[in-house]
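Table S2 (continued). Query chain:
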Amino acid sequence: MNQIASRAQLRMSYLRWALFTVPLILLIGIGSGRLANSGYGNRWFDALAKPDLMPPGWVFGVVWPILYILLGLSVAMILHARGARRRGAAIGLFLVLLMLLFAWSPVFFAAHKVTAGLFLIVAIGGLGILTTLLFAGIRVAAAWLMLPFLLWIAFAAYLNYEIRRLNPNAETLVAPAVRTQI
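Corresponding output:
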């Protein structure tokens, strides 16, 4: 027997990484969105003009958890690839990507910085492409798991650009006050 670990042991190792990365990314991603009061229901955001291709709010609530799961599975494959060339660089770039990704909601929804959000999402897209290329050199399946994220980020960048174009005063817009009847 010249194997260090059996296939079952290797699968369990990947599973352990996935059981760590998927919930962690889900928790931080969903928490970032909640803390920033992301999406519909945010009075400032509701007051903005939206592009024609803007999906209904429930779409974001379905898509983002799926993307977070795919990201978690993808990075688990890279974490599992001990000894792979450029593994450290890939993990480091992925962590920077996540930090920027989780910063987008607070920048856009909480701080109302539409232009900064646009620059941030373009940076996220660029880092996402670089990360995917590094992942492809380590595990091709990990790169494929990144593809839906890249497509969604491209669409989100388009939405951010259009919101900026349609609302030149968005950063100074004050959301209407909540009215109560006493």
